[in-house]
Amino acid sequence: MDDFDIERVAEVDLQDPVFIEGLPGVGHVGKLAAEHLVEELDSELVCRIYSTHFPPQVSVEEGLTQLACAEIHAVYAGDADLLVLTGDHQAQDTVGHYGLTDTLLDIVEEYGASPVYALGGVPTGELIEEYDVIGAATTEAMRDELEEFGVEFRGNEPEGGIVGISGLLLGLGERRDIPAACIMGQTSGYLVDPKSANAVLEVLEEAIGFEVDFSSLEDRADEMEDVVRKIQEMEQGTPTPSDEDLRYIG
Amino acid sequence: MDDFDIERVAEVDLQDPVFIEGLPGVGHVGKLAAEHLVEELDSELVCRIYSTHFPPQVSVEEGLTQLACAEIHAVYAGDADLLVLTGDHQAQDTVGHYGLTDTLLDIVEEYGASPVYALGGVPTGELIEEYDVIGAATTEAMRDELEEFGVEFRGNEPEGGIVGISGLLLGLGERRDIPAACIMGQTSGYLVDPKSANAVLEVLEEAIGFEVDFSSLEDRADEMEDVVRKIQEMEQGTPTPSDEDLRYIG
Amino acid sequence: MDDFDIERVAEVDLQDPVFIEGLPGVGHVGKLAAEHLVEELDSELVCRIYSTHFPPQVSVEEGLTQLACAEIHAVYAGDADLLVLTGDHQAQDTVGHYGLTDTLLDIVEEYGASPVYALGGVPTGELIEEYDVIGAATTEAMRDELEEFGVEFRGNEPEGGIVGISGLLLGLGERRDIPAACIMGQTSGYLVDPKSANAVLEVLEEAIGFEVDFSSLEDRADEMEDVVRKIQEMEQGTPTPSDEDLRYIG
Amino acid sequence: MDDFDIERVAEVDLQDPVFIEGLPGVGHVGKLAAEHLVEELDSELVCRIYSTHFPPQVSVEEGLTQLACAEIHAVYAGDADLLVLTGDHQAQDTVGHYGLTDTLLDIVEEYGASPVYALGGVPTGELIEEYDVIGAATTEAMRDELEEFGVEFRGNEPEGGIVGISGLLLGLGERRDIPAACIMGQTSGYLVDPKSANAVLEVLEEAIGFEVDFSSLEDRADEMEDVVRKIQEMEQGTPTPSDEDLRYIG
Questions:
Q1: How far is CA D228 from the centre of its chain?
Q2: pTM of the prediction?
Q3: Confidence (pLDDT) at C245
Q4: Distance from CA of A91 to the nearest CA of B (A)
């Protein structure tokens, strides 16, 4: 197998598509948001990307295996066409991160997709009530536009920069003159956070111009709140939760 | 030396061989099972596979050294011809796992071997009495067939997926249209487990159609039960076991 | 992207330039010294060096992102022309260190720059009053010359050798017949150390023949002394410092 | 720089040379033994081997730097010509170990050197009085010959095999039909062990047919015994030793 190997599943004809990335990261915010788009809207698997820099692993569903990969779906969001990247893995090493991002940007260019939105979370270190959305962009034009939709640009935040595929989509995207922005929902960093994903998607709705139903994400948020409540009770000396409750964590 | 280097030892002429993998893993279930076939049945070393992704190491036997490698034996199991992969090492890095598996699948294709059975263990986290055998397959046909032989397919179990060469033989095998299945014996995960290997081999006997004598494996299982008994006694305050007893662990 | 990718920003015409390296390291001495030259003197960004061996990361400034890189500025220091390397990262792996240094030495040769000065710190393990400057060189001529400017050469110190880009600029530089020296300010190793950077720059002023104003570095040194004082008070039981105080550490 | 780069220093004309390896390892036994040959006998530096798989580092001697490397000296041991490999580093990764050993075996073949002796230590885990020498070989002929000189071949000992360059010189040497043996002095594993190096060299004297003066090695052994004595006193509650004493450890 090549270092990066694209399996084409369907040919699609898209009008001025936007590229959206949601791989695993802080609070799984980006992953939840991107998967929500694929599940709730009219969508179609376009390709799978395999890589020797992904974990040497298959996942199992209904007894059948799937080699570790990232998937790109075409999502038809009303008038807007989206290419949405989802998956369960980041690359496993530094060189792999750069190579995977270059492979993704080749696909972005192939479809003439623009701009690129990388979705993620920013950890606050504490449980939060308000889900601010922080941004970073490769161009002043994107920054100014996203500010209009309520995204906050806070000097040099996040201070540690943006790491992984999200960061490189901006860094390598800029070098190819592909406008790109990272949209990050605030999140505690301790739990999978559907509310933060919701906040990120609300920005995206406005920036791109589409609508998506949030009820399933709200249901997951309610489930998470139950988990948080039980954890807080635990800390106050109540019995330990069942395995099922903890399944939502991490 | 090339990244992957095949040393041909014997030319063999096999009828519709089946490929069986048993490298080290949980409870050494796959390794025990595969080595049992090589030792108990009529077998012949076909080739050794060396790799710069194996540990930089030689083993020593009777004062003579052997470079780290994996070995493929032809095993003549009655009417069935088998190609059995054994060895002491997994690849040492992600890229090496993919490259080693590709090298193995080249050999599988060279001999027209089909299907591929990857043998392994599934950890339960506790000492067990009943040795269920869990499966995962690349095709519904293989899944259905193995179910008839008592292999259990349990939704998305194992939840963490299947890692290492076993997982990739399925993942990369599927991409080459080579039918493959992983047959995993339940095992505590704490000890080398000949009983679990026995359970896996019983499935294989039925699926492939051959017979093998289990007495040496049963002897090792008895030895392991002695070890377990002594460990349980230790936990109840009896004297520590001798080094010899512990030699069987890991 | 190539393993090492040079983005040319400005063409410059330099007279017999000297190359100065100041990447992060012990006490950030080299980095502080090199950045001070770029900030205080007349300077111009010549190129950025990107690499798949840098962290997969962008930094954020005013909401805009910059891919991880090293930067080379032309610095016009009176009669002396300097090429000054600064950045926030060392390479992430052994092979990357060698490759990045080779890329840098290609640029050194392209501009005919000579000699190469690698700036850094030597940890003493305790807070110090006197900032001795230790040296190591590729040639006896450079050693003798630097000794005249007060640099101390102490047998085989530093005992652990010199690691990272600084070490390789000497090691690989010597193999290309480029004279090179490492100039290391003593520093505790616990704190960012502007005073040690000051001591290193004073040597450089004499060795190259230029002058730079130290007041901003002295201001940072004063700030650090406040931090040290507060830490010492902490150890004696006074209240913990604010986050702002600790921002200067590391 | 290439992955492995040979700097030729002197042309030498050797009669049926033997190749001896002594890189750092358990108790520094191999390194001490090999360096003793280079220092005590008539010797000449033949070449240095640099590698991007060595640490990115220079060492410093008299203020001058030397890039991390391994060195091969021609050693004229009476009637016997030796090629002796010494150095301060093993390769830093698995692929580097294989590549470095292949580079060394190219040189072995270039000089027609045979056999290859890899020197090292075997840890016993306790301070020892008798320094047995254990062997492992690629051929029965070498095993039988070394047994005559008092080397012990003990079944599959060392149980963990032989790792690093020593192991691969045998493993890859055998694949090139170069006879090779590893000669390992028993050692506690806790301290640099000149006595164990002495025992290894005595075997080598007989196997190759040369004589070397051991007095400097005996002096170092005496120094180490002082250190051991002081450590033993420490454990019995006497004052801590000076830094100078501890310098000999590791």
A1: 23
A2: 0.91
A3: 44
A4: 10
